[in-house]
Write a structure and sequence with these properties.
CATH topology: Structural Genomics Hypothetical 15.5 Kd Protein In mrcA-pckA Intergenic Region, Chain A
Shape: globular
Structural class: alpha+beta
Largest sheet: 6 strands, mixed
Strand content: 15-25%
Distance between the termini: 50 Å
Strand order of the largest sheet: 1-7-6-3-4-5
Oligomer: single chain
Radius of gyration: 20 Å
Length: 161
């Protein structure tokens, strides 16, 4: 999971593919420490353009042509089953604020672990209500490369033979 509000925010999740999008939404709320809110989840193409919308509203079995499907009736694996499939998690409809998810790996569950779970997190989650309050903690790249900073500005090498 990534955010366009904070270049440093990252979350890696391990989830069951047979959970519903509604269950996935509840897990995301808990993982990010967000309060319950109205969201839409969009299946997107490789360019992050929405392709299909899934909402918390159930339009019933006589679905209106083109209406979004209810996320409680759709399993995650129905919309996100191939490597690099992408989802957009829109948690603030009024301000069009979203988080972006991409399927990077599939593995068999380990018997000694509980799922769904957060396996990696970096930087605070974007503030749920105020985009201006989002903390932009240090870059993962900068942290990883900090071991190599000792070479910054060192021009003591002689290029001439």
């Amino acid at each position: 999971m990534l955010s366009d509000e904070s270049d440093n925010f990252v979350r890696d999740f391990e989830v069951y593919p047979d959970m519903t999008l509604g269950q996935f939404h509840q897990f995301i709320l808990q993982a990010l420490g967000y309060e319950d809110c109205m969201v839409s989840i969009f299946k997107s193409d490789a360019e992050w353009r929405p392709v299909e919308e899934f909402t918390q509203l159930d339009f019933g079995d006589d679905m209106i042509e083109g209406a979004p499907r209810c996320m409680d009736k759709v399993m995650l694996m129905e919309v996100n089953s191939e490597f690099h499939d992408r989802l957009i998690y829109t948690f603030d409809m009024i301000n069009n604020r979203s988080l972006y998810l991409e399927l990077l790996d599939m593995q068999r569950p380990q018997a000694d672990l509980t799922y769904p779970r957060v396996v990696f997190e970096h930087a605070p989650a974007p503030d749920q209500y105020d985009p201006e309050a989002t903390e932009d903690a240090g870059s993962i790249f900068e942290e990883m490369m900090s071991d190599y900073n000792e070479f910054d500005g060192d021009d003591g090498y002689d290029d001439e033979f």
